Amino acid sequence: MGMASTKYWQLVKLFRNYRKRQVALFVVCVIAVLLNLYFVYQIQEFVDVITAGATLATIWKSFVRILAIGIVALLMGIVQNRMWHTFRYMLMNQMQTMMYRKLLMKKAIFYDEHTTGEIVSAVMNDGSLIAETAGISILMFFLNSMQIIVILGVLIWKNALMGGIALVIGVVYFVLVNRINGSMRDTYKDYSQNVAEVNQHLTEDVKAVLEIKTLNEKAFFMKRFHEHVWGRQFDSAKRLVRLDVLAYGVNNFISVIFPVTMVLLGGIFLWRGMITIGTVLLFYTYSQKLIEPLNNLADFYRGTQVAVGAADRIHDYLTDEEEESCAPVDTDVVTLSVDIDAFQWKPEDKVILNGIHEVYQGGDRIFISGESGRGKTTLLKLICGFYPVTQGCIGINGTDVCRMSEQERFDRIKIQFQEPVILEGTLRENIALGDPFADAEIEQVLRLVMLDGFAREHGLDYAIQESGRNLSGGQKQRLALARVLIRKPRILILDEATNGLDEATEAQVLNNILEYVASTQSILIATSHKPAIQGICNRKLEL
What we know:
The chain is 66% helix and 10% strand. The protein has a five-stranded parallel beta sheet with strand order 6-9-10-3-11, sandwiched between helices. It starts with a helix and ends with a strand.
């Protein structure tokens, strides 16, 4: 737990830039809480003024004062509520933004070790929880502690015995709720893990929905999802429910017993003439107001424990990847050396690639062939530097690609994978991705990939739906290729990049790529199960 706590406090430091805003919110909250308590206290005095037989003028004056205090307290409460929730969402947004930025810098192996569901759950759930705990919960702790101290101080000042009894009841209740909340930590962690697994299942099934339909196996996938949701996830949910019900019972029991005890004792002291009716009312009202901050403090403890567990899970998400530093790589010429004595994913795994020793120069067009499973896509990923070669080295102009920063590496290398990523947005946005390309540049690259007719018909502001649902498979591949070519790669890698194109379109696109490679003296590396792309290559690597 010590290491997890250390990780949690390291993550809390990420929000130091919000410290001034946090202090301002704390001051506003203190004023709002004190005004609210003072308003309740003034009601007690108003009752005493009436029961003491004061004049109408005195009663009216007291009423106006209480009304004014109540209005100010209400307005301050509104301001506090707005600032509180705005600050909460700002913290959550900052954490989600930080985690997303760090994720983009992670190496490929990170994504091999984490499922999509785990990553989504970490960013959207665990990250948000830590953000709230770091920025909001600490304020809640101090505010509720202050409120408890003020309430108990006033009650003890009004009547030491009744105030002491309120203190004892409050302490017992806090300890009891704290023990219940402590039991929730492991149960909540287990439930969160099950939710992440369900998210992963759902993500995979949504992506594969067409395959599920065509395989006519909806019943199998429905059964699998049903068993997970109503099996492990529901079992952990039931354990949470039992603890929540116990907490609910204790909370409601004390919510009834505490105020009733104060009224009963107050009635005895009132009968003996030791306190006034207003004081009885004050004890009743303040005892109710004491329950909420006690609950909040228990929630703070529980929330902190859960956040510590979350911090242990997501700490690696927020650590920086160390990038190698190396001498600048010459950009005017390009030489790619591939020396792979052996490559395997793990020491105990079989060797996937071995005995590859090739040197390629600008203008070379290499076709990589081999049966399925022989490592073609793996080799392309190694050339991109996504993974280090187990035994050997892949270099650009003599520099190991794994020692180059991602910025340097992908300034030179561009790859189009088998499944292109198409974003929801305009045609222009899908190509530019925020870079300041002129429309003329975009139109030129669209001609290279034979999408210029589509652009003339629909315009560059044509709205593309999520995942390119309103585009054909071939259009999506050509759009992704345009996105790559406009960035003028020195090493262009195509992994089954034209398998969605008809023969005529493919022939024209490949001819344009051939002209691009010749004019820029770039290196083309391609894999494909279609013969056309092999026809434009002048070298071949058989795996």
